[in-house]
Structures are given as structure tokens and as C-alpha cells.
Design goal:
20% helix; two-stranded parallel ribbon; 109 residues; 2 domains; three-stranded parallel β-sheet; alpha/beta
Length: 109
Amino acid sequence: MVHYPKPSKADLFGRLVTQLKSLDVELLEALPPSLDNYDVVVDALFGFSFKGAPRPPFDSILKLLLDTSQPIVSVDIPSGWDVDQGATSTTSLVIPTPRCFESVGSLYR
């Protein structure tokens, strides 16, 4: 399942949605009150360049991420996280995120 909270009209994102639908990936219009019924949560909300306080609907999504007891795997960098603090589980799509080399979490290559 994928939650796409603020759909974009950009062609790239439209093609990604089409691809998800062709793979029978369910698109959630709203998140449940808890993420604890999922085996793992993938955080791909914000990248390393995000600045400022998150606005709705992202602020409530970040709260769900903070409140869950389930493992979270973050793409590139955990959303709402200070990039200088280290991470427990991240994945990079192109090149490794430099500060993650100093992480205290498990390392898989």
C-alpha cells in the first residue's frame, strides 16, 4: 500500500501512480489512525533538502511515524530527522547518504 497525501499534476508523478496501479498496489487516500498493523513502514516523504516545519497533511503523517512501534525503513534520510544525528535504517537509491556511514544501526550492503 502507498499513501500519496498530496498528488502532483507533474507528468513524472502521474506515471509513477500509473505504474503502481498496474502493479495492483493499493493507493490509500488516508492513513489509518495507527501504523502498528503493518510489518514495516517505508518513509519516503521528504529528502535531505527539506527545511522548515512540516505543514498539513505531512505533520500528522510524521506523528504516525513517531508513534509507531513497527520498523521504519527510510528512503535517503528519515523524514523530520536531523541529518547530523545518525539513523537506524535507511536506503539510498543512487549513492549512499554520507552521514549514514556514521550510523549506529545495522549495515547491510
